[in-house]
Amino acid sequence: MGTRRDPHRARDARRPPPLPPTDITAKLESAGSPDPQRNARDAVRLYEQGWSIRRVAEEFGVSYGAMRRLLMNNTELRSRGWNENR
After folding, report:
1. 10 Å Cβ neighbour count for 78?
2. 29 confidence band (pLDDT: 50, 70, 90)
3. If you average pLDDT over residues 17-25, what whole number do you get?
4. What's the domain count of the chain?
5. In a domain, 65, yes or no
6. CB-based contact 31:39 (threshold 8 Å)
7. Which residue, 11, 19, 37, 46, could crosslink 23 as a Cys pair with Cβ 3.0–4.6 Å?
């Protein structure tokens, strides 16, 4: 019998390392406004208006995880899953 490959190992090798918080701020700074605090407020405002974390992240050109961390630090996140108000 041969050795079994760990399917997660290949996926993890392709995954870029997560951005540290300072890089998230720099990425938001490059999103069009020189004020990263304003971009963070804009991201929170969009999320609170009902945008998904993924959609807000795409708008600002950052990863889902980076945007989720930013939002967790600045607002209360909605529960994950089905939205009964749809």
Report:
1. 13
2. low
3. 57
4. 1
5. yes
6. yes
7. 19
